[in-house]
Amino acid sequence: MIAKTEPVVESTDGRLGQFNPMIRKESLNEKVILVVGGSNGIGASLVELCCENGAYAIIGDIDAARGEQLARKCIQQWPVHQEPTGPPKPPRAIFRKTDVTDYQSVLDLFDNTFKKYNRIDHVIVTAGSAETRESWFDHSLNLVQVRKAPSVKDIDVNLLGTLYVTRVASVYLRHNRGPGVDRSILLFSCAAGIRETPVVPIYQVAKHGVQDLMRSLHANLNSPYRHSIRINTICPWMAQTGSTFSKTAEERWTKEGLPFSTADDVAKVSVGVICDDSLHGVSMYVEGSRAWGIESERPESQCLGEWPSQSLAQGQRVLEEVFAA
């Protein structure tokens, strides 16, 4: 078992606007961080960055082969220091096969983590789906085709799965917690969750749902009369994770000079949000290697600035044209 974490010093930096993530090892060392959707892409980068800075990472994902491989890599690359006279510590990382659309599978992930590590400090939900090839509202649909039920995978994975994980996390994060110890939930939305994206309506519905889940919960979860749990969202724009782009879209994006984010870029911002205990109820928009904290009450141009707002609008037009072609 590992000991309860020491209380953190509260930050008074309640900034919004451009965010410069600070990865503080003292904020991550010995923390137990559960990454749902951690086998690939941004999730895998998050797992590695957490382990590199002394945290324990639990990988929950449907992809067992990649998840187990990543856990082995983290164990070998960042071994846990065992005290000669102390009790044995758990491994730096473990993998648990998890289907976020199955409530029992989510419960099993948390149960397994809690038994092995005795607590959970932060939960990050990166699991996602983007079925861009199927349109619920295809203009060519006829009276025969419309009788076939469309796929609901984007809703199930992006929204229902996030709801399941957040519900369970809100309970487990309360337990085995010392006074003043920071606990948080970090959800993944995207630019489609804060800006209209006509070409992917079902995906956008799901990502808006994630945004509104955070907005709905942040006041109650962080109340001292409740459980003082922070909740925030990450809204990456265009991330090169191997699944976001078609070749046509990537070529057009490059031609327009629009920014890409790497998985490492998004992971760095995400871990920065975990480390900054002043951030609560914030959506962090990530463009390239830069990020801005935004609120629904403030105009987009005030949150991002003139150039990022124009760039975002231009990119959304490019996407609409590419998918409509």
UniProtKB/TrEMBL annotation:
Q: Which UniProt keywords apply?
A: Oxidoreductase
Q: Where is the signal peptide?
A: none
A GO molecular-function annotation: oxidoreductase activity, acting on the CH-OH group of donors, NAD or NADP as acceptor
**Does the keyword Oxidoreductase feature in the UniProt annotation?**
yes
Instruction: Give one Pfam family.
Output: adh_short
Q: Which GO terms describe its cellular component?
A: cytoplasm
Keyword presence, Oxidoreductase: yes
Q: What InterPro entries does the record tag this protein with?
A: NAD(P)-bd_dom_sf, SDR_fam
Where does the source fall among the domains of life? Answer: Eukaryota
UniProt record similarity statement: Belongs to the short-chain dehydrogenases/reductases (SDR) family.
For this entry, the protein name equals 3-hydroxyacyl-CoA dehydrogenase, putative (AFU_orthologue AFUA_3G00290)
Organism field: Emericella nidulans (strain FGSC A4 / ATCC 38163 / CBS 112.46 / NRRL 194 / M139)
